Amino acid sequence: MIMYDTIIKGGRVATASDVFTCDIAIRDGKIVALGTDLGEARDVIDAGGRWVLPGGIDSHVHISQPSGEGIVMADDFESATRSAAMGGNTTILPFCLQESGQSLRTAIENYHAKAEGQCYTDVSFHMIISDPSPQVLGQELPALVRDGYTSFKIFMTYDGLALGDLDILRVMAVAKDTRALVMIHAENYDIIRYLTEQFETEGKTAPKYHASSRPKIAEREATYRAISLAELSDVPLMVVHVSNRETMEEIRRARQRGLRIYGETCPQYLVLTENDLDGL
Question: Three-class SS string for the chain?
Fold first, then answer.
């Protein structure tokens, strides 16, 4: 008689071709058999005809991360992973922020220390590269990729985070050499600063002007530029939290030309508009 670690009995399962009720056998954390009368297991779970779904992977999470002016993201690893598990996500990938002058190894060790003993789900990290020094690019980043941290995020905006095109190209060169994935926050920083200065001078500081200071063209232009740099570097690129149709069109055109350009969005950009800020 075959022995499994776990059998989930009577679960409703969907495959690429069919929907049916069956038992699911698990060994060493992997599904190894579907069927009935599969054998014995140390743990047996009666699904009672309920849907059995794979755990989700939330690949864009900010936890215990500094956000300027002494602000830290509201969730710690305990609260964030508890919420993730309740929502059906069994793996999350938060961002590990490299602060100015900090080594990447120190940054990742600090975030692992924050997560130690606090997590209800599996956790890995994307690196945020804010200080791409020769030491970081030549030694630290390739070493972390070899250790399994194969994606990193860069910013085109925000004080202390924004990289110019030259530094972006240097980061992309490392990504090409190590076969890593570059993620990018694409906004034209000068447009944002210019409009913010105007609004502040005019006393326009209500929440709705936050959206007005970040018009669609700021994201679209930066996305086009980021795609151009990725094309020159011959690397894949993930454009994060796309917020408008115009930016998505830039990504679509790049993909139609055969470039490895990807985009993601967030729920707020699907259900809210800048009009929802009016009156706050």
Answer: CCEEEEEEEEEEEECCCCEEEEEEEEECCEEEEEECCCCEEEEEEECCCCECCCCEEEEEECCCCECCCCCECCCCHHHHHHHHHHCCEEEEEEEEECCCCCCHHHHHHHHHHHHCCCCCCEECCEEECCCCCHHHHHHHHHHHHHCCCCEEEEECCCCCCECCHHHHHHHHHHHHHHCCEEEEECCCHHHHHHHHHHHHHCCCCCCHHHHHCCCHHHHHHHHHHHHHHHHHHCCCEEECCCCCHHHHHHHHHHHHCCCCEEECCCHHHHHCCHHHHCCC
